[in-house]
Amino acid sequence: MKGLYKLGAVATTVMLSLMVVTTSISADDRGADWTFMIYLDADNNLEPYGITNLEWLEGVGSKSGEVNFVVLMDTLTGPADLLYVENPKSVSIGSEYGFPKEVNMADPAVLEEFVVNAINDYPADKYALILWDHGGGWRGLCWDDTADLLPTGEEDCITMKELRTALVDAKDQTNEVIDVVGFDLCLMAMPEVAYQVRDLADYVVFSEETVPGYGFPYDSIAGDLVANPSMDGEQLSSMIVEDYAEYYSSMAGYCDWTISAFNMTHMDDLKDAVDVLGAELLDGLLVYMNYIQRDLINAQRYYYPYNVDLKGFAMNLCKDSAIADNDLKKAAETVQEVVEAGVSACINGLHNDASYGLAIYVPSTNDGMHSIKDAYAEVPFATETSWYDFVSAFSNWEGRTWGTG
């Protein structure tokens, strides 16, 4: 799977067999309909899947004047290279930027440079950016196994704050809002993540659950986009959702998956709604602690059990006859409405049928994960709403019981 970084994963030693032709291609395709960028961080145990995904793209290739597929790919067995995807082989286009060279894909400056160069060199009417690697929800994305450790001894990744910094700086340099940002990473469908691309993207596509190693089905996605390059951001985001669902639905044994798209025009409403709900939950803890806990436990949860489906939790609060606080129930109802309005597409696997497109962090289980993680204090969505205060109080509530009644 593509998430759960460093939970016992052993780096693969598969040799990279990618063949590229070095050329000094300039942007002959200026004015294309789409430039589709993939930040493909396979400098870890996901390398074989990264190679496969690139091959899928090469099976379609860019279409002159209409669609540009541009990839920054880093692997365990070779330096990174900036590629223009053609059929049947990609073309190296990074010589003026010093590629091929080793880069730290966990460095937000590398992400920023990639986005700026791709947009400047391959301007288009619309842009998509896919972030590809391991993911840990609000905990971060894009680990690089050949990068140096941080001074703390921890492995480097792009944090939520760094993600925003990279994309804000890229927007400042290009004056472009990205039409679709896709997170081909595990467990990223969270308001804590989406909030970091507010005003920087029109739609986001991501998963509440883990993403299988093969990730997005790029052959289908590329083929559909090339066949209909006039599609807009809403259509592309929905198409990615549909292609993903069709791919994993057709594969035996794949039951634990979700995929959803979120319309970022609803981000402010979502923030406000969660802010009010967090405040009401905090106010009601003394009276309703055990019922709140029960409503969380009965909502859909994911590989990280402290990721809880937001709408499902809100629905349970509204239906809970033991909760008599009308303000709390009204806040929960508003969250439901905003999630319904903002999630423009959502399809789930068999084991995740009670998913509605967005999960939120609530450390509430009795499996050793109920203590709030220190790093959550660095997550802007949490600290710029009342959600951090609620979660902190809830996870440290001394009088709680672990039953469901």
Radius of gyration: 21 Å
Tally of individual domains: 2
CATH architecture of the largest domain: 3-Layer(aba) Sandwich
**Which percent band covers the strand fraction?**
15-25%
Total strand count, please? 12
H/E element sequence:
EEHEEEHEHEHEHHEHEHHEEHH
Average of pLDDT: 91
pLDDT under 50 segments (min length 5)? 5-29
Helical residue percent band: 25-40%
Global geometry? globular
Kindly identify the CATH topology of the largest domain. Answer: Rossmann fold
> At the first level of CATH, what is the class of the largest domain?
Alpha Beta
Strand order of the largest sheet: 1-5-4-3-2-6-7-8-9-11
Q: Structural class, please? A: alpha/beta
Biggest sheet descriptor: 10 strands, mixed
Number of helices: 11
3D structure, described in words:
With 405 residues, the protein is α/β, with parallel strands linked by helices. It has eleven helices and twelve strands. The strands form two sheets. Strands 1-5-4-3-2-6-7-8-9-11 form a ten-stranded mixed β-sheet, sandwiched between helices. Strands 10-12 form a two-stranded antiparallel sheet. It is globular and about 65 Å long. It starts with 20 loop residues before the first strand and ends in a 10-residue tail after the last helix. The model is unreliable at 5-29 (pLDDT under 50).
